[in-house]
Amino acid sequence: MSLHFDHNRPIYIQLMEHFYRKICRNELKAGDKLPSVRETAVEAGVNPNTVSRTYMEMEREAVVVSKRGQGTFVTEDQSVIQQLKETTAEQQMDVFLTTMKQIGFSEKEILDLIQKRLSALENGGDSNA
Amino acid sequence: MHEPTITLTNVSKKYVRQQALAPLDLSLDHNGIVGLIGPNGSGKSTLLKLMAGLAQPTTGSITLAGKKITRRASEHIAFLAEIDSLYSSHTVKEAIQFFDGATTDFSREKAEEMLDKLKVDLHQKIRRLSKGNRARVKLVLTLSRNVPILLMDEPLSGLDPLVREDILKMIVSYVDVEKQMVILSTHEVSEVEPFLDYVIFMKSGSVLLNEKVETLREERRINLVEVMREVLQ
């Protein structure tokens, strides 16, 4: 499986987002070992140097920890993971809110629309999710 | 860290009347995967052959780690030719033995392991292999050499998308990007883009750009296809 990349943005950042999403979804759990740099490179269809950079940046942000000779692991610190989830959610909401404001909705209207949409989805009406 | 350095100084190449390379200066001293990109006839193959010591420059000099490049450069440089370079009467196993005998740094175990993964039958004759499998065998023989520099002339040309993907993944799997430099020529820019550390654009025998791919993305916020359009127009 090769990932699809937007070639206008640095690939190492997109690869970070890919891992962060997995960690947020709990597909990669606290303390889990990440695949080796080369495994990820082959799987994602990118250069190993790009993967190294991704791992280094994630380590700098304290989301992963590299242990000498053992590999790279997701942090065991739950507060970091919680923080990551919140930051990711905030980023997504900011994008959404900006778009909604650009097409002319007020904050009150946006809130109403979200509630309407959520209850529609709950009733199994439309499954765009 | 020891890095292979190829330096070209005022290098040009003329074939009888045709100027294949304009005089150019180029220094390559970074490990990783380098894409040599340009339209047909832009001088990509000529440049690779000169670096491999398979052709002599008309003017200028080429050095590898300070030493002039000659035919003996093959001790440090593996070259994957675009043309069919295997004996068709050999079996795959004999082709491996031939390469093992012809070079001093060949790893037979590595070659057989790779071919096993690719499910290529070692007892099959080269001439009976499909085009895709011939390309895979050629690549395996190149990747099985333990040399600092690997030059690949159009490793993807004429192959179907699945084989091309296989070839790129093999390069990523078996090249040590921290210790080796791969230069591969192609015109399939978007396909190789995620695999490249560096890119060199050529046109009409000149090098127009030699840059780190991530830098291009960060500074210009555009992809390689767009960069190519800007540079080669």
TrEMBL record, chain A:
Record flagged with keyword Methyltransferase: no
InterPro entries the UniProt entry points to: Tscrpt_reg_HTH_GntR (IPR000524), WH-like_DNA-bd_sf (IPR036388), WH_DNA-bd_sf (IPR036390)
Domain HTH gntR-type as annotated: residue spans: 9-77
Pfam families xref list: GntR
Key words of the record: DNA-binding, Transcription, Transcription regulation
Gene Ontology terms, MF aspect: DNA binding; DNA-binding transcription factor activity
Domain of life: Bacteria
Coiled coil: none
Protein name (record): GntR family transcriptional regulator
Species: Evansella caseinilytica
Highest classification ranks of the organism: Bacteria, Bacillati, Bacillota, Bacilli, Bacillales
From TrEMBL, chain B:
Entry superkingdom: Bacteria
Gene Ontology molecular-function annotations: ATP binding; ATP hydrolysis activity
Keyword annotations of the record: ATP-binding, Nucleotide-binding
Pfam families from the UniProt entry: ABC_tran
ABC transporter domain: residues covered: 6-229
InterPro entries: AAA+_ATPase, ABC_transporter-like_ATP-bd, ABC_transporter-like_CS, P-loop_NTPase
Keyword ATP-binding: yes
Protein name, UniProt field: ABC-2 type transport system ATP-binding protein
